[in-house]
Amino acid sequence: MATQPSLQLQLVTLLGQRMDESVYEVILPTTIGEISVFPGHEPLVSLAKPGVIAVRRQKTDPDTALEYFATSGGIIEIDPERVRVLVDEADHGDDIIEAESQKALERALKMRDNAADQVELEKASQLIDRHQTRLKVAGLRRHQTKTRFK
Amino acid sequence: MASVQQLKSRIRSVNSTKQITKAMQLVAASKMRRSTAAVKETADYATAARELLADLAHDRDTITSHPMFQNRPIKRRLLIAISSDTGLAGAYNANVLKGLVTELKSDNEHHIHTDTLTLGRKVSQFASRLKEVKVIGSYEKLPDQPTGLEIKAILNEAIDRFVGLECDAVDLIFTRFHSPINQEVVVERLLPAGLASQSDYEQVSSEIRESRFEPSRDEVLDAVTERLIETQIVQALLDSRASEHSMRMMAMKNATDNASSLSSDLTLAMNKERQAAITQELAEISAGSEAVQ
Which domains does chain B have, with CATH numbers? Predict the structure, then answer.
């Protein structure tokens, strides 16, 4: 049997390497829409926007086995056998606590409403983006576990 | 031979010096731990960023189209040197200054005009004393954990000059941190982007790559290049800080050890001196009583 072509996913953040593993599929949020990357993809350099990265490790994995990361924007470099994602931060779905993110989002919204100047406003909207993504990942994660135990 | 009184006061002063160096050693050790952790955290990102830049620089159209990748013959060069604000860090600053002098000399031989941008008080003072060197800016008291704002000013200065054709290359001189006992001064190329060093150049695939860019080449390069170069500066600063604290810790440890051995030598000398005085007194008393009888 021919060995299955694989894709090395390197997820690098400012706090170190989050992932360096062989996977089957990666779904990435780019500035011009979501793209799905499979092994053998043509070389491509693109920009990542804040959003959700989904990873399917095996071809046979169902959607409920997808792994999610909440990420900030960054750079994506794709080779036929490697995907390198450089982002400021990436949080694994398992590490996000929904209630905390919810509170943080509320704080950020309040901060935006009370922002005194442009710098604060910018900061607040960055925080809002960040926590909204995290909440989205947490939601996906919850949905996954629910369907898995049905 | 010094008197007991003199020796006593010397011991006291050596001991208080020792207390100070010991305290500095402890402070440097804890700072070192923090900055070493910071270096390790971002190291992966910085390496990936360097490789990515090198990959981009291997693309033929990038080199010709984007201003930050333009490879020109070097006639003017901007050197960014990183030192510390304070001394007492062993050979840390001296090494950086030595590296700077070597670069300046080689530029002089190749008839390259050099401007410098200095980060840290020690190198600022040194560069401002050199007649033939123009210091275009100096930054002091940068925090241990540099944030975007401080770096932005430096970055913009470098990019403006490079893109505005005021210099043909921008290099960083800093101390790379390998381990607490091993650091070296290195020169890293910031601009033109992607050519950090010769070894990097060989590491990545040497064939010219043809990648697609989405949304477009210019948009991607504009968004990415500045950010990746910023990462290089941040990493250089973190490396320098970690090196500084390690070297200061080692220097202070040596100073403390020296003070300890000096103090014990002096104590020995003082005890001998005191004993000699006692013996002498006894001899005088017995000689006196001998005379009375």
Answer: 42-249 (3.40.1380.10)
